């Protein structure tokens, strides 16, 4: 066991669906034993570059979570599956690869990989690459952590978030990419880490129109974190027109409404989870 030193969050992408100046929101968590747990994969082949830039070791990643089936979250998963299948077929990946998702995403991934992967790569799906269907409240244990999936009750595509609970009780909660729903209070309240979307600054809401897309601003996400008594808040899934000043400006706005630690990562940033 590597202890707490190992735990960290590596942001592969931080932007919303239509960004061009950064990658779509996805990330991985380094667990206590050095295992890597991936969440979403962005919208395409760019995921392979982002993973390469962070020094990602596929052999250490046997578990992945996919929140929903929107373009900017699920299409990169096809590339991850292709890469893992290719490594398996070349004898460079030992063990199994497990993907956790709800029924809609599972069906999408099965259909898309069947249509797009080479036969020998697709043959890995169901034999050494497994798609596990989770339901609201499903619990999965792996690599020394306990994951509980929850339905965020999206008004758009069906979407799940999750709470990751470490052996020492540290709670890491991913809310997906839509505003918080009280249905999930048990998983978010008092979390050590809360990952929430913030489409833009409150002052820029007329420009980016987050509410029309069922997204929130930095202000709402920060007020939520304050209300829930969250220790650390990570804001992602943002616009990309303010990339140069985003970290500074968003952090300043977050501090107006939230007294914990606010993080506004750029792509490839690494945050120690403690």
Commentary on this structure:
The chain is an alpha/beta fold. The chain has one domain (3-272): Metallo-beta-lactamase, Chain A (4-Layer Sandwich), CATH 3.60.15.10. The chain contains eight helices and 14 strands. The protein has helices at 46-53, 71-89, 103-116, 119-122, 185-188, 205-208, 218-228, 243-257; strands at 8-13, 26-30, 36-39, 61-65, 97-101, 129-133, 139-142, 145-151, 160-165, 171-174, 193-197, 232-236, 261-263, 270-272. The strands form two sheets. It has a seven-stranded mixed beta sheet. Strand 9 (160-165) and strand 10 (171-174) form a beta hairpin. Helix 2 (71-89) crosses helix 3 and helix 7 (218-228) runs parallel beside helix 8 (243-257). It is globular.
Helical content stands at 25-40%
| Mean pLDDT figure | 97
CATH domain class name: Alpha Beta
Task: Spell the H/E element sequence.
Answer: EEEHEHEHHEEEEEHEHHEHEE
CATH topology group: Metallo-beta-lactamase, Chain A
Structural class: alpha/beta
The CATH fourth-level homologous superfamily: Ribonuclease Z/Hydroxyacylglutathione hydrolase-like
| Largest beta-sheet characterization | 7 strands, mixed
Low-confidence stretches: none
Give the N-terminus to C-terminus distance in angstroms.
15 Å
Specify the overall morphology: globular
- DSSP, total strands: 14
How many discrete domains?
1
Radius of gyration: 18 Å
Mind telling me which CATH architecture this is? 4-Layer Sandwich
GO molecular function: 3'-tRNA processing endoribonuclease activity
Pfam families: Anti-Pycsar_Apyc1
Protein name: Metallo-beta-lactamase domain-containing protein
Organism: Mitsuokella multacida DSM 20544
């Amino acid at each position: 066991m590597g202890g707490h030193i190992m735990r960290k969050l590596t942001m592969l992408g931080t932007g919303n669906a239509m960004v061009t100046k950064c990658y779509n929101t996805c990330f991985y968590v380094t667990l206590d034993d050095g295992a890597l747990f991936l969440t979403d994969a962005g919208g395409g082949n760019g995921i392979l570059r982002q993973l390469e830039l962070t020094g990602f070791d596929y052999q250490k990643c046997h578990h992945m979570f996919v929140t929903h089936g929107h373009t900017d979250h699920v299409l990169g998963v096809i590339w991850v599956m292709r890469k893992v299948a290719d490594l398996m077929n070349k004898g460079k990946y030992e063990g199994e690869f497990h993907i956790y998702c709800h029924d809609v995403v599972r069906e999408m991934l099965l259909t898309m990989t069947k249509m797009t992967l080479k036969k020998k790569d697709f043959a890995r799906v169901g034999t050494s690459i497994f798609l596990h269907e989770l339901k609201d409240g499903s619990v999965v244990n792996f690599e020394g952590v306990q994951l509980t999936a929850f339905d965020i009750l999206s008004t758009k595509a069906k979407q799940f978030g999750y709470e990751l609970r470490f052996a020492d009780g540290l709670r890491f909660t991913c809310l997906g990419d839509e505003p918080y729903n009280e249905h999930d209070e048990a998983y978010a309240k008092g979390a050590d880490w809360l990952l929430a979307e913030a489409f833009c600054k409150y002052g820029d809401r007329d420009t980016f129109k987050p509410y029309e897309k069922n997204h929130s601003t930095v202000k709402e996400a920060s007020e939520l974190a304050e209300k829930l008594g969250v220790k650390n808040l990570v804001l992602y899934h943002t616009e990309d027109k303010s990339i140069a000043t985003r970290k500074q400006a968003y952090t300043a706005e977050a501090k107006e409404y939230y007294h914990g630690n606010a993080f506004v990562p750029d792509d490839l940033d690494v945050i120690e989870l403690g």
